[in-house]
Amino acid sequence: MFKKVLVANRGEIAVRILRACEERGMETVAVYSDADRNALHVRYADEAYRIGPAPSAESYLRIEKIIDVAKKAGADAIHPGYGFLAENDDFAQAVIDAGIVFIGPSPESMRLMGDKISARNTVIAAGVPVVPGTAAGLRDEEIQAEAAAIGFPVLIKASAGGGGKGMRVVRTPADLVSSLGAARREAKNAFGDDTVYLEKLIERPRHIEIQILGDKHGNVIHLGERECSIQRRHQKLIEEAPSVAVNADLRARMGDVAVKAAQAVGYYSAGTMEFLLDQSGSFYFLEMNTRLQVEHPVTELVTGVDIVKEMMAIADGRRLRWKQEEIKHKGWAIECRITAEDPINNFMPSGGVITTLQEPTGPSVRVESGIYEGFEVSLFYDPMIAKLIVWGENRAEALLRMRRALNEYRIGGIKTSIPFHQQIMNSTQFMWGTFDTNFLQDRFSVSLIERPEMELSAAIAAALVTHGKGQQATVLSPTAAQAGSSWKRGAGWKR
Question: Annotated catalytic, 291?
Answer without folding.
Answer: yes
